[in-house]
Amino acid sequence: QKCLSVDERILMSYAQGVQERGYPSKFLGNTLNPLTTYELSAYLLALAGACGLKGLSVRVVPLLFSVGVMVFVWRLGRRFFSEQVSIIALLLYLFSHLAINFSYNAFHVQYDQFWYLLCVWCFFNFLKKTATGEQSELKGRGPEKAAEWLRWFKSGLTGWTIKDGLIGGLAGSCLYLSWEGSIFGLFIIFLLLVYEIYLAASARQYQKA
Hints:
mainly alpha; two-stranded antiparallel ribbon; globular
């Protein structure tokens, strides 16, 4: 464990609490102190170190998450811009000294990047399939409209719209449990979600007029 940083050692001590007591915690003197932030990171380290919390085992987790981050950087670059931009973005990230340092650091940074990009990806798909009107337009009034809503919801449960929303929400929850400061990024995603739905609704009203 000599190769680990101070932050990594602290997180590993709480991960040992997961293995011993079932939740991230450690003794400070005679007092049992539960972890109140980075909780998910401690659980991930405890899972990776099930056979023994060592320097190599705890570095496997951020390494796998860093690979996932690179995949999302490439795919988001392709979706929002072009193939060339995605490759340039991937190379810039790949050779960034900060990305290299965090790719094997067991602290929460690499997990945050992965959950945040997964959240952005899912909510972009959710917006594309709902705000742009890919679902059937709801018609009728009163009971007829309620029945249309029910049929739309049932069909959505087996489609990608609801799945993307649920996965995005789960990714947002994991992001918050990895670091509570991510609430600011999640709030921005929420504002963009509301704004894009408002623009799509306004566009449909303009077309009908």
